[in-house]
Amino acid sequence: MQELTDAFQRQFAAHQLPMPDAEVYLISDFIPPEEQKSLQQALTGKAAWRQEKIRMFGKQINQPRLTAWYADAGKAYTYSGLTWEPLPWIPELTALRNRLEELTGASFNSVLLNLYRHGQDSMGWHADDEPELGQNSIIASISIGQERTFSFRHRIQKSLKQTLTLPTGSLLLMAGPTQHFWHHQLPKTAKVMQPRINLTFRFIY
Ligand SMILES: O=C(O)CCC(=O)C(=O)O
Ligand SMILES: [Fe+2]
Questions:
Q1: Is the pLDDT of residue 180 over 70?
Q2: How many angstroms is it from 26 CA to the middle of ligand 1?
Q3: In this protein, which residues make up the domain named Fe2OG dioxygenase (predicted)?
Q4: What CATH number is attached to the domain comprising 88?
Q5: How many A from CA of 139 to the centre of ligand 1?
Q6: Is the pLDDT of residue 197 over 80?
Q7: Is residue 85 part of a domain?
Q8: Is the CB of 112 under 6 A from ligand 1?
């Protein structure tokens, strides 16, 4: 089981969202403004983006986003019925991983990249609760580019909701029992949206 350090919890207490059965922090300025553009350019150009398909109602359809998956050698991950073979780390991702590990005291050995090209790209309700993530996993989710809405919905008390906007450069940290009690989504929007890259750093057992 992973835990955030006491030092992190004290330092970022004011950034914790008021959600029961959860431990979620939003740190708006994790990536300094002067780094955001170059990071977005580097990842847009260099990451090994793939258009994966998902099965829905017996049909194969394109996922409404592009994805890329980096991890330590030997860490395969099963996600929406797909098994991902990891790519070797690139320097930009290693640098972010090191910063996150220093900040949180947690370890990360993999990152899933999502590229939302426009407002019709999205991710539906889910929890990051696959068995290989273990109990009380820590998920560090970095946003670069277009600001988008992100929502949580309690899995048992369905009327409990928390909606936020994820600005560019922000870090959303999900820890404690969050994945066991809440679903989250990134909804589609009819508004015109520029591209957004999201990186979710995880630890896979
Ligand atoms: O794009 C986001 O902010 C959410 C991504 C997400 O939930 C995931 O990759 O599991
Ligand atoms: Fe997720």
A1: yes
A2: 14
A3: 107-205
A4: 2.60.120.590
A5: 10
A6: yes
A7: yes
A8: yes
Pocket test for ligand 1, best of 112, 114, 202 (most atoms within 8 A of CB): 114
Distance (angstroms) between ligand 2 centre and the Cα of 10 equals 25
Q: Which residues contact 75 (CB under 8 A, 6 or more apart)?
A: 86, 109, 110, 204
pLDDT above 70 (res 160): yes
Asked whether residue 130 is domain-assigned, the answer is yes
Decide if pLDDT at 81 tops 80: no
- Ligand 1 center to 23 CA (angstroms): 16
pTM above 0.90, yes or no: yes
Complex ipTM over 0.95: yes
Inside any domain, residue 21: yes
Residue 79 lies in a domain: yes
